[in-house]
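User: I'm putting together a small comparison set for a docking exercise, and I want a reference complex before I start. The sequence is below, and the ligand is zinc ion. Could you produce the 3D structure with the ligand included, as structure tokens?
Assistant: Of course. I'll restate your input first, then give the structure tokens for the complex.
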Amino acid sequence: MNSILDTGIKKSKNVDSYIFGSGSLNELKDSIENRRKDLNDFAIFFVDEYFSGSKILKKMPITDKDKLIFVDTKDEPTTDYINNLRDEIVNSQKDIKSAIAIVGMGGGITMDVAKAISNLLTNIGNAEDYQGWDLVVNKGIFKIGIPTISGTGSEATRTCVMTNKENGLKLGMNSDKTVFDEVILDPSLSKTVPRDQYFFTGMDAYIHCIEALDGSYRNAVGDTYSKMSIELCKEVFFDSDMMSDENREKLMIASYLGGCAIATTYVGLVHPFSAGLSVVLGTHHCISNCIVLNKLSEFYPDQHKEFEEMLKIQNIKLPEGICSDLSDDDYESLYNATIIHEKPLFNALGENYKEILTKQKVTEIFKSI
Ligand code: ZN
């Protein structure tokens, strides 16, 4: 009998090429211009709205023919949002076949939107049809990822996460076809990130890797990526100046390596609980992970201790009591949105994970959050 962990990850795909170093954003021009062959050819740029009106935009090779979309990152993407965006793009262009490249510049949300749209422009149907493992049939439009904040690893992973509000499923299009064709890792872009956000997002890389190393689905390649990523995160977050030029560069590499790690294995307990918070209360992925890890010392004692030290050194305060006083219906929804993630839970606790994570246990944990 096949274990459920046998599904999906038999081989792994990395990004085809990446450009690294401070100022490497300047290389985007060549990457795009080399692909323009015809007068009607155009590129689609998804840029985090944070950069609207910023000087960085002027450095980007965006012409009148191109489509520039600022991505609202207040809420994490839903399948409806992705479908509507796809329709808007298709309806605004004479010939969608003239799209030569898609650029996603921003955090995990913006990069995930770029990946999802790239897939949907070459595959029939809607975003929800591709939530799952290896469902994308055709290769998407050539896509370039440019992270401006480090941690989610979206620049390296084979997924783009979105929530289907109809069934409460927070799940990405896990596919080799979701992996970026090119990634530009320019640490100068994360200079202006607010401190708290820098910490929460950076911890996503750390959490991906501690969950992976603690799981039962392991492989030597994933383990190596995870260990290196954790080392770099510790160097950054145990340092008094976590946002120095050197540390921003280290965290950008940690994020990339963490993404590579997670592409070959699974997360564990933190991400399912975190997904519950995001689906039911709308809290963002990275801060949700930190809130959850803070309450899972029972399952991750050593990592929890390390995390507490990092919080202290960086003087970061986590929100408390966000789930302490919810209705029974809300706790039911939180349980359902957590327990649905069978692969990571199986990875963390084995096939009988529901015996450990009973409804009562899960509700208790959420009540402490
Ligand atoms: Zn994550």
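The radius of gyration is 20 Å. The first helix runs from residue 28 to 33.
User: Thanks, that's exactly what I needed.
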